[in-house]
Amino acid sequence: MKLDNANILITGGTLGIGHATAELLLKHGANVAITGRDEKRTHKTARSLGAFPITADVADYGDVKHTFSTFLNEFGHLDALINNAGIGIYKPLDELTIADFEQVYRVNVFGAAMMASMAAKIFKKQNYGNIINIGSTAATKGYEGGSVYASSKAALRSMTQSWQVELRKHNVRVMLINPSEVTTAFGNEDREERHAQPNKLRGQEIAWAIKSALEMDNRGFIPEQAVWATNPF
Fold first, then answer.
1. Does the reported pTM lie above 0.70?
2. What phi and psi, each to the nearest 5 degrees, are found at residue 56?
3. Which of 30, 90, 105, 114 has the most CB atoms within 10 Å of its CB?
4. Which segments of the protein form a coiled coil according to its record (predicted)?
């Protein structure tokens, strides 16, 4: 896929991996729209990047439909969806509630699925398209307190594999990027970015992986890729 003048939609694009990805793709000539739940933050970030802002919550199906209608009104067609929006809750097993699962799954699983469903309708008509899901290395190996988050990313991984089988015959590439720990605002209640550390991943490393996956010629794709810090210890 050629990035120059490609139309790309990134969910959760105001901070962290989404922000770094939008910045990198714009730098290489793509037209990028970012979504965010906070209207003020979304518009401010979009202005600073040169992206198109869409205020929306992927956990709300009405917002999902609004996102695509707004995007298509602005750009005309869609080349790639990057399902980046995600949240996490970390609790011991004996403190978990159904509400914890519902809150996280509405974003990480249901929201990602509904975004992909809308994109698939477009891509099947075009006989072309790209979906990149931002998963986690937690999907392949659980950890203490990770019942909710790790299982949500495992569900996303399984859905990705199903979509790959379903959409390949329509020339649609579905790819999964699994970051390990990234120093972003993820998990911070104040939504402020954490300071970068020399031995930890940044959003930029994940953005590089996303860009590289998209730029492969359309005849091939990378189904799944993990990104680890070289020496986090």
1. yes
2. -165, 155
3. 30
4. none
Give the structural domain span for 110: 7-227
Helix (H, G, I), strand (E, B) or coil at 86: coil
Residue 149 is a catalytic residue: yes
Task: Tell me phi and psi for residue 82, to 5 degrees.
Answer: -115, 105
Successive 10-residue mean pLDDT values, the chain, 233 residues: 98 97 98 98 98 98 98 98 98 98 98 98 98 97 96 98 98 98 66 73 97 98 97 90
CATH number for the domain harbouring residue 210: 3.40.50.720
- Backbone torsion region of residue 2, taken as left when φ is above 0, otherwise alpha when ψ lies between -120 and 50, otherwise beta: beta
User: How many structural domains does the chain have?
Assistant: 1
Residue 13 maps to a domain: yes
**Cβ-contact 59, 110 below 8 angstroms:** yes
pLDDT at 195: 77
Which of these, 36, 37, 34, 38, lies nearest to 9 by C-alpha position? 34
pLDDT, position 70? 98
How far is residue 8's CA from residue 5's CA, in Å, rounded to a whole number?
9
**DSSP single-letter state for residue 141:** S
Q: Is residue 101 part of a domain?
A: yes
Residue 166 lies in a domain: yes
Q: Which two tokens stand for residue 31?
A: 């037209």
pLDDT of residue 185: 58
User: What six digits make up the tokens of 103?
Assistant: 């809150």
Q: Which of 65, 7, 69 is nearest to 33 (CA)?
A: 7
d(CA 164, CA 148): 25
Burial grade of 12 (CB within 10 A; 0-12, 13-18, 19 or more): buried
